[in-house]
Amino acid sequence: MRFLKPLSDLVFTLLIWTYYIPGFLLFFSPLYVGALIFSSNRRAAFQRLNSLYYRSFFFVVRALIPGLRISVEDRVRSIHSSVIVCNHLSYLDPILLISLFPRHKTVVKGVFFRVPVFGWILRASGYLPSSNGGAEPSGVLEGIADMESFLSSGGNLFIFPEGTRSRDGRIGQFNHGAFRIARRFGAPLKVLFIGGTNDLLPPGRFLFNTRGRKTVEIRLIGDLKPDYGNEDFSIGRLADQVRSLYREETVPHPLEGFSP
Amino acid sequence: MTREEIQSEILRIFKEEFEITNPGLDENLTEKYDFDSIDALDLLGEIETLIGSSLTREEKKASMEIRTINQICDYIEELAEKRPL
C-alpha cells in the first residue's frame, strides 16, 4: 500500500502535465496565432490568452485533485493599475497569479527567455527578464517601455520580491526592484499572501501532492499608497513595511469562496 | 567632471539609492549585491540627472551589459565625450 501514494501522485502529475503542453498546442496555439496575425495590441492579447490558458490549467488541476480547494479573496480579483508583490512558495505561484489577472506583466528569470517558443511568448507578452541568466539584457527596457500606459489602463505588474521560492515557508530577503518600479510609476502597492501551493507542488519536487484535503489561498494583506514624493520616503523602509506585513501572517484567516 | 568626481558621485548614488556601501570597483554588482536589471533602470535615471540630459535608446541598451562600478564610470566617461559635463 505504501507505493500507492507515489503512484497516484505520478499518474495525476502525468495527466496534469499532459494537459500542459498538448493542451496548449491543441486548444490555445491557434488562438495565439490568431492574436499574432489579427490583434492590434499583441501584448494585451497574449496576456489575456496566457491568463485564459492558466485558468484552464487550474480547472484541470482541480478536476484531477478533488481534495483541492483554491480560495481567492474577491478584493484580490479586483486589483488593477497596481504593482503587486507576493511571497513565493512554488512554481505554481506565478501561473496562479497569471490566471487571476487578464492584464498583467511580471518579471521572469532571464534564462526562460532563451527557451524556444516559450521565450518568444514571454517577450511577446511584454514580460520583463531579470538579469540573472541569459536574456537579452535590453529586454527589461522593452518590457518597461509601455509600463506607464499599461498601469494606467488597468494592468497589474506582479513580482515576487524574494526572487526565488521559499524552502521553509518563511519570507526570504527582498530584492527592491518591485518597489523601485512602483516608485518610478507612482503606482499603489498591493501585498498578496499566497499559501498552500507548496503543499500542492513542493519546491524541489516534480510530482504534485495529490492526496488528502489541501487549500491554496490568496489574500490581500496590504494595500499601500506610499508618498513617493516625500523626502523621508525610502525604498528600504517600504520594503521593511512589506516584510512586517508578512511577519503578521502566522494566524490562518477564514477563507472566502472561490469561483473559477 | 573628472574620473574621480564621477566615481565619487556613483558611490554616493549606490549608498543613498541602493543601500550598497563602498562596493569594490571591480566587483560584479549583480552577483555580490543582487543588483538587477530593474535596479539598473533606476541607476540610468540617476545617470541622466548626473549628466543633465536624457539617454538615447541605444545608450540605455549599451548600459545593460554593465556589471561593475568601474564599467559604470567608463560608461559615463563615454557619454561625457558626446556631451559636456
How would you characterize this protein structure?
The complex is a heterodimer of chains A (260) and B (85). With 260 residues, chain A is an alpha/beta fold. Chain A has a single domain, classed as Glycerol-3-phosphate (1)-acyltransferase (3-Layer(aba) Sandwich). Helix content of chain A is 45%, strand content 15%. Chain A is built from 10 helices and 7 strands. Chain A has a 7-stranded mixed β-sheet with strand order 1-7-6-2-5-3-4, sandwiched between helices. In chain A, helix 1 runs antiparallel to helix 2. Chain A is globular, with a radius of gyration of 18 Å. The C terminus of chain A is likely disordered. By secondary structure, chain B is mainly alpha-helical. Chain B has a single domain, classed as Non-ribosomal Peptide Synthetase Peptidyl Carrier Protein, Chain A, CATH 1.10.1200. Chain B has 5 helices and no strands. The mean pLDDT of chain B is 89. Chains A and B meet through strand 4, helix 6 and helix 8 of A and helix 3 and helix 4 of B.
List keywords for this structure.
heterodimer, A: alpha/beta, Glycerol-3-phosphate (1)-acyltransferase, seven-stranded mixed sheet, disordered C terminus, B: 85 residues, mainly alpha, Non-ribosomal Peptide Synthetase Peptidyl Carrier Protein, Chain A, 5 helices, globular
The DSSP helix count of chain A reads 10
Residue ranges of chain A: pLDDT <50 for 5 or more in a row?
251-260
Main structural class of chain A: alpha/beta
pLDDT below 50 for ≥5 consecutive residues: which ranges of chain B?
none
Give the helix proportion of chain A (percent range): 40-55%
Number of domains of chain A: 1
Separation, N- and C-terminal Cα atoms of chain A: 34 Å
Taken as a percent bin, the fraction of beta residues of chain B is under 5%
- The CATH class of chain B turns out to be Mainly Alpha
What summary fits the major beta sheet of chain A? 7 strands, mixed
Secondary-structure class of chain B: mainly alpha
